[in-house]
Amino acid sequence: MRPDPASVPAFPFAPRALRGTLMVQGTTSDAGKSTVVAGLCRVLARAGVPVAPFKPQNMALNSAVTVDGGEIGRAQALQALAAGLAPHTDMNPVLLKPSSDIGAQVIIHGRARMDLDARAYHAYKPQAMAAVLESHDRLKQAYDVVLVEGAGSPAEINLRDRDIANMGFAERVDCPVVLVADIDRGGVFAHLVGTLDCLSETERARVTGFIINRFRGDIGLLQPGLDWLTARTGKPVFGVLPYLHGLHLDAEDAIIGAQAAKRGTPDALLRVIVPVLPRISNHTDFDALRAHPGVDLQFIGPGMPIPAADLVILPGSKSVRADLDFLRAHGWDRALARHLRYGGKLIGICGGMQMLGRQIHDPDGREGQAGSSPGLGWLDFDTTLAPEKQLRQVSGRLALAEEVGESAGENARKDATVRGYEIHLGVTAGPALDRPALWLDGNRPDGARSADGQVLATYVHGLFDDPAGCGALLCWAGLGSAEGVDLAALREASIHRLADSLAAHLDLEAMLGPLRMPE
Question: Backbone dihedral region of 174: left (phi > 0), alpha (psi from -120 to 50 degrees) or beta?
Fold first, then answer.
């Protein structure tokens, strides 16, 4: 619940009093950079400040399709929403999608350009920096304030040469930096002081102050440490942000512990399992199910058996054939066959859809070594990975109403709306597509359904995000007359709650002061 608006401090600047770029860096990955930038975007947008988010380089397998038909990190799409903007490729000009432990697909201005190993990408960074600066310049022309999110930590000494993600960018555009640290993981003062010690003299001078994130406890007991930190570094603590439980915000990448541990309420009636593959992508597809009180959702990781469930969902994958090998090596293919024998339902999304077919062909080695792999064989189609990635935002309706023997009321429900996006290299063909899972953009078929009604496959990410479609799919899976959750409303409420917390606990006047225009 949001606090009374009267309890949120007034924004300390006039709407057009600020201009420039402010960068938020972190002492570690997952320190809270993404959420701080999202919250600040909403704080400024509510105050009438034209603001845009920006991340020079992102490494993530959770991505989003932009209004200009490109692909960016999911966190930047969330930040754009917080700023009241449609996501654009300039907000994340360089996106790296890992395909192995040492290699990644390189996406520049929303388009996949090449696959490079770590050493080759390091050599490519000067060209990547040119794309970064081009996008930043365009955003500066269009918005008064650009809020930049760093990547990982600026203290990674081995990455300092040719850095485009942290201080290398900040030095190039000459912007102030705020450093965020997560107190919940411990060692917060060592993180902050140690990070500063790893920076050059000019980089240390660029850091204007600190934010301590995810605090729980008595702030009075923390105060001596804050005083010591300021005396030790000569830099202020702009604020201590409380730990906010229950935020519904899109994750940048990793399936964090809170997600993996989510269990349904005592009233949960539907058990859903998602196997976590090594290159799982866009696991934000399951956020609406995690938020649903009637769903017990579990992510099953390596070494864990797939338990009895009502519904199993095979997620998207950046390396479908390798992840399929992993699935078989863990015996999950046998567990899925047993699940279907006992009447369970199975959904495959994007890469998961491709796994459900007969064959997956990668003649050009787009996702690894060239070749073909047998699929799980539950749907009669084959998939070939093509050179061009398909990127589009889509809307349509479920095709579940085409099942025979349903009442008119049930048919109306199973004809429910869906909205989402496609990001895939695969081109799929075969007889199973004659029974589509969805009808998109008017009359374009997507995916497939098995004749026995147990298996459904689709290329659409965000399958559960529309409340009507989510409710119909849960009904199909066995939850009866359940309604879907309104994920968009939950996300919007969380952004407002986050912004209220930042406004209440940060010294915005001091932190944003370097952006103040001369009077």
Answer: left
Q: Residue 375 and residue 317: Cα distance in Å, rounded?
A: 14
How many Å apart are CA 89 and CA 95, to the nearest integer?
10
CB 297 within 8 A of CB 323: no
Kindly name the residue from 41, 175, 350, 475 that is annotated as catalytic.
350
How many whole angstroms separate alpha carbon 483 and alpha carbon 41? 32
Is the pLDDT confidence value at 231 over 80? yes
C-alpha separations of 470 from 261, 283, 421, 453, 495 in Å = 22, 16, 15, 17, 22
DSSP β-bridge partners for residue 438: 398, 446
Compute the C-alpha angle 161/165/168, nearest 5°.
50
Q: What angle do CA 183, 181, 44 make, to 5 degrees?
A: 115
Q: What is the pLDDT of residues 338-395, one digit of tens each?
A: 999 999 999 999 999 999 999 999 999 988 889 999 999 999 999 999 988 999 999 9
Residue whose entry in the numeric block shows the structure tokens 């895939």: 424
Q: What is the CATH number of domain 257-486?
A: 3.40.50.880
- For the segment 287-297, the average pLDDT, to the nearest whole number, is 94
The question of whether 350 is a catalytic residue gets the answer: yes
Domain positions in the chain: 20-91+130-248, 257-486
What is d(CA 109, CA 98) in angstroms, rounded to the nearest whole number? Answer: 17
Report the distance separating Cα 65 and Cα 91, nearest Å: 12
The CATH class given to the 20-91+130-248 domain equals alpha beta
β-pair type (311-314, 345-349): parallel
Query: Measured between alpha carbons, how far is residue 396 from residues 82, 347, 418, 481, 488 in Å?
Result: 26, 18, 5, 21, 17
To the query of whether residue 41 is one of the catalytic residues in this protein, the response is: no
Rounded CA gap, 181 and 514, in Å? 21
Q: Which residues of 432-453 are buried (b: 16+ CB within 10 A; e: fewer)?
A: bbebbbbbbeeeeebbbbbeee
Of 502, 518, 519, give the one whose Cα is nearest residue 41: 502
Look over the chain and give the mean of its residue pLDDT values, rounded to a whole number. Answer: 92
Catalytic residue among 461, 470, 475, 505: 461
Burial status of residue 306 (CB atoms within 10 A of its CB: 0-12, 13-18, 19 or more): buried
